[in-house]
Amino acid sequence: MKKLIALFAASTVASTAAVAGVALSGTASVSYDDNGSSASSTTYDADLVVTATNGGTTLTAGYDIDGTAMNTTSAVLATTIGPVTISADMFDEVSSVATTNTAGGQIEESTDTSVTVSLDVPIGDMTVGLDNSGNVILSGTFSGVTVSHTVGDTTTTTASAAIAGIDMSVTNKAGATTWSLDTTVSGVDLTLTSAQKITAAFGLAGNTMTVTRVPSVASAASSVGNTSGTHANGYGSYVKNSVADYSTVAISRDLTSGASLSATYSTKDDSLTLKAAVTF
């Protein structure tokens, strides 16, 4: 009898230890949108994230649980061995879209599962990295400026710094340059990007109002691609309709119950969206 009790106790401890390495988190929300002059609609969303850790190895899996079945949305296994980091993306997302798409979405399906092997070798103030695609990543901070330079199929250089209260970031990718500026003026958080998008956030954490000006989008014709993505146009894209610039005003407040309420008005379609959400 004592042996049976001891065996049961050992089993219980083992099970508890195994569960201790697993963490659950997620979000849930319900949104009501009056859709301006169109018919109103209500949408629901619930997501679950499972994070399992054993030493330096972590498995992170995401699930969409608001439908008739639990659907996988992500699955990544990562481990670190000295200066080597191995990350395996095991979930193949659906990258193609419906043929009725008019927002420039991808036509042909592509496979995005991958294994990335990164090697970080610090040299002075610089770190040299190498991934499984053959890209060489050079990064470091010099005189307060953080620089990252990737040499590979597409050369990318990013530089960021905080100067006189302004956080600046500039990225050049394949010859195209984008930038963003972030600062705070009289308690208002302001963001300006090279795409002419402007965001202003007022208030304190848990009780905020955010005003956003979204720039216009030019129309673009569809392009032909192929299933392997080796075409000059990659996997191809559907036609993109032009969209005029518009603004949104979002008011959000945290409740003592742990949930949050938000109301968002958009001049794009003169709509008001009310959303209740919780994060756990």
Describe what this molecule looks like in 3D.
The protein is mainly beta. The protein has one helix at residues 2-20; strands spanning 22-33, 41-54, 57-64, 71-81, 84-89, 114-119, 121-123, 126-130, 136-142, 145-151, 156-163, 166-173, 176-185, 188-193, 198-204, 207-214, 246-254, 259-266, 271-279. The two termini are 42 Å apart. The relative contact order is 0.12. The model is unreliable at 1-17 (pLDDT under 50).
Count all strands and give the number.
19
The secondary-structure element order is HEEEEEEEEEEEEEEEEEEE
Number of H/I helices: 1
Cα end-to-end separation:
42 Å
Quick summary:
Helices cover 7% and strands 54% of the residues. It is mainly β and 280 residues long. The protein has a 19-stranded antiparallel beta sheet.
Topology:
Elements (H helix, E strand, L loop, with lengths): L1 H19 L1 E12 L7 E14 L2 E8 L6 E11 L2 E6 L24 E6 L1 E3 L2 E5 L5 E7 L2 E7 L4 E8 L2 E8 L2 E10 L2 E6 L4 E7 L2 E8 L31 E9 L4 E8 L4 E9 L1
Antiparallel strand pairs: 1-2, 1-19, 2-3, 3-4, 4-5, 5-6, 7-8, 8-9, 9-10, 10-11, 11-12, 12-13, 13-14, 14-15, 15-16, 16-17, 17-18, 18-19
Question: What brief labels describe this structure?
Answer:
280 residues; mainly beta; 19-stranded antiparallel sheet; 1 helix; 19 strands; 7% helix; 54% strand; disordered N terminus
